[in-house]
Structure formats: structure tokens, C-alpha cells
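$ run holo --ligand "dihydroflavine-adenine dinucleotide" --emit C-alpha cells
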Amino acid sequence: MQLDAIILGAGGAGLFCAATAGLGGARTLVIDHNAEPGKKILISGGGRCNFTNIGAVPDRYLSENKHFARSALSRYTPADFVALVQKHGIAYHEKTLGQLFCDGSARQIVAMLMDECAAAHVDFAFGAAITAVNHADGLFTVATTAGSFSAPNLVIATGGPAIPKLGATGFAYQLGKQFGLKIIPPRPALVPFTLPGAESLFRELAGVAAEVAVKAGKAAFREAALFTHRGLSGPAMLQASSYWRHGEAISVDFLPDAALDWLTDMKRQRPKAGLKSVLGSALPDRLATALAEALGISGEMANHKDGVLNAAMQRLKGWSFRPDGTEGFAKAEVTAGGIDTAGLSSRTMEATGATNHLSSQNLGLYAIGEAVDVTGWLGGYNFQWAWASGHAAGQAIAEKAGQC
Ligand code: FDA
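-- output --
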């Protein structure tokens, strides 16, 4: 069989790239070491797959090159993917903040992608461990436990190492390096924080959730936070984790709707109440109790000077936590960092001849999806990048195949 492209990885990016290239007339083969496609899609969005976000604009992505994702995202938009979902009769809804989920099951998205691949005559090799990849005489040869395959184009779509138990690996980086691409050091993102022993007061709040505003570096998010046995999780904290660096503090506003004079106001309205009870009117009881204890303010509000209450309010609106780490790749929803975009064309995702060390010509090597140093916010952004980057590479491969 004469192939135009071999796509390594049957996740969202690889499947979408294969379907796009195939529908454009290219003959493609997708290789994956897992026995079935789209394992991350199946568990995503609590089993309902948050398949895109209607606000998927470039500034909601992290990358060393903030502008890299712009081209692909603008040429394949959330509306384009929604049109495909509708064409396949999949019911969906917007949950919050532009996040679109299936009404039924994430399985519908995998089935849709596999239907598109079938219509595009894509071939598959599942359960195939890759043992070597070589390039000679204009062809990539991929040796696997299911045989050896050759094609003039090779797409790296093997994602990043987040959640290894689903078959996730850092293979993309190994392969990228083999062909001269640079790697931005990968790190877990959209991942819960762990807190040191000194913060045990807060770890005792495991299970308590509250809407907060959190700041990490220059980024700020207002969403739910969840206290866990090990530290802090929930959407607000997952978002903050992508921007956090080891050693830094994060700042949490526990009362994002309250003005700075709220406690002194409450003192006048409820002079006989305790701080615990006042905070309990805006926060879950266990959290209110823990915060009042940590602030060391007990007794009636009337007994405390305005200055003391204002200082307490300032702490409540900018509580500093210094996480000692995160729960790592085992619990991360995505990997930040990865194949450096400096070596890729933002239009086609192809590694440019200027950066690979084998040839001054483009080799026909592409990288897409999570393998690349483009990481989205929580809420459907990462799948939109998988579709958009897969589409860009798929189109480029189809164009090349059409010229042969
Ligand atoms: P992906 O990791 O999906 O696919 C890579 C494929 O390559 C896998 O099939 C793997 O088996 C294969 N592979 C890896 N190494 C290999 C090797 N050495 N040889 C052969 N094959 C190899 N995003 C979002 O937008 N909305 C959401 O709701 C969620 N929810 C979510 C929940 C959870 C629990 C996680 C872990 C992640 C999410 N995400 C998400 C993130 C999203 O799943 C992720 O960004 C995309 O799946 C990335 O797609 P890729 O195709 O790039 O990689």
C-alpha cells in the first residue's frame, strides 16, 4: 500500500488530522499502541466530553510563542466543529463559560471521528508498539510490532505524558529530538496543587468547595475551588496551576463579590455576631470557621476595631498559599511545554527545513495536538487545539498528495 502519511497517535488530534487528510484525497495510516482510539476523549468532561469552547481565542492558550496558535485556530473554529457535531446528530449543550458538552456520552465523539475516518478510507494499526522511526530517500519508515510502514509524511500526534495509565507517553519529545526539534521542558498543567504541612488547617477542609478568585503570576481566574486531602483543586486551581511555577505563591480572594469595607459594614449591621457567623453568610460553614480561626478573631464583631477588621478583610481578599508542588503527570489534564513551535510552521504544523538537522528541505514531519508547546485553559480549549492543529496538518498533507 502506497501511503501519503503515517500519523502516530489515535487521539483527538491524530484522528482529526487523518480524516481531514483522507477526505482531501491523501492515503493515511494511524498507528497507536493502545488497542482502541481516543482513550482521553472517552474519559473527558466526566464522560460527556467538553469538545470545544465557543470562546477559543488565542489568548486562552499558553505557549512560548503566544501567536503560534492563531493561524490554525482561525482557520478551524469552534463553529466548524459544532457544525460537524450537528451533522452527526449529536445532541450537546453549553454548560458554563462557553463550554460545550455532549448531552449523551463522549463515545459519540469518538464514534463521529471514526466515522469520518472511515469515510476518508483511513487505515489503522492499533496495539502496535513503535520500535524505530527512520528517514531515508524521502520516506519515513516506522517499524512496529504490527509491521513496518513507510510514507513521505509523518505526523507526531502522540500527545504528552499526562495520565500515563491511559497510554500517555513522552514519545513525541524523543521523536522530535531525533529530527532536530527543540523541546520546551514539559510540566503538568491543569493539575491540583499540594500544600505543605504548615497549611494543614486547610487540608482538613477536604471536600469543601467555594467560588473564589485566584491569581497565579499575571493570570487571574474566578471559578470554584475545592479543598482536598492533599491541597487545592477545582477549576479555579487547575487553571492557576498552568501559570504557576515552583516556589511561587498563589493569591486567593475568598470574597470576590465583597468590597474592602464589608466586615466593618457587617460589624454595624450585626454587632453581636462572631466573625465565623458573618463569614458563614458568604462562605461554606467549615471554611468560614477555618478562616476565622486562622485570622485569630473570636468574640463579637463589636469588640473589634475597624482597623483589625479591615486588615482581616485584606487577607481574606488576598490569602496567600505557597503550594509545595502539584499532583504531577498522574493527575494532570494536560502537559504544558512540548515540541517548540519555533521549529514548526504555524500554517501547516510542518517542521521547517531551517530547524531540522537532516536536510535544508522540509522533511514532511508534522507535530500536532498536545505534543506541541500549545496548552489551552480548562473548558474545551485543548480539544479545540487538537481539532484545529490536526486540521491544519491534514489539509497541508492533502494538498501535497494532490500535487504528486
Ligand atoms: P492524546 O493524548 O489524546 O492522544 C495521543 C495518542 O497517542 C494516544 O492514543 C496514545 O495512546 C498514543 N501514543 C502515545 N505514545 C505512543 C507511543 N509511544 N506509541 C504509539 N502510540 C502512542 N480537553 C478538553 O478540551 N475538554 C475536556 O473535557 C477535557 N477533559 C480531560 C479530562 C482528562 C481526565 C484528561 C486527562 C484530559 C482532558 N482534556 C480535555 C485534555 C484533552 O484530553 C487533551 O488535550 C487531548 O486529548 C490531546 O489530544 P492529542 O490527540 O494531542 O493527544
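-- notes --
Residues 8-14, 32-34, 39-40, 43-45, 49-50, 130, 157-159, 162-163, 167-169, 171, 333-334, 369-371, 380-383, 386 surround dihydroflavine-adenine dinucleotide (CB under 6 Å).
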